[in-house]
Amino acid sequence: MALVSPYHTHRVGDPLDLVALAEQVQKADEFIRANATNKLTVIAEQIQHLQDQARKVLEDARRDADLHHVACNMVKKPGNIYYLYQRESGQKYFSIISPQEWGAGCPHDFLGAYKLQHDMSWTPYEDVEKQDAKISMMDKLLSQPMALPPGTEPTFQGLTH
Question: Coiled-coil region(s) at which residues (predicted)?
């Protein structure tokens, strides 16, 4: 018994077979390129998102540091709202008195209100409700029992019969 068929080795192939083979290879190359491009596009979007997040973290850290260096004649306590004012001299200071409480007699320019969070970060007053909702949701998640069983080894329970 022969390992190679003489019929297939001596037969002259159809020239269109070579063209079809070349087209198939070219089509495969195009699909591979398209798949790689799609995957790289997703990665590029993720990188852009991470860069945006990093930029926001740095901006928030700079704002928080600046606010912690603002003049204040009281001990700041997390959870409280503080009102930022600026004197004519340019000096900024925190007060516990809101512009509404000052009324028409507010002596300085009001720059904004901030809540001092328990992690010592500052949340602009207009974002307090949204930030408190996020913190509440995280507290709920952390108070629930763990969804995954403790252990370091992967388990495949439920995946097999």
Answer: 33-64
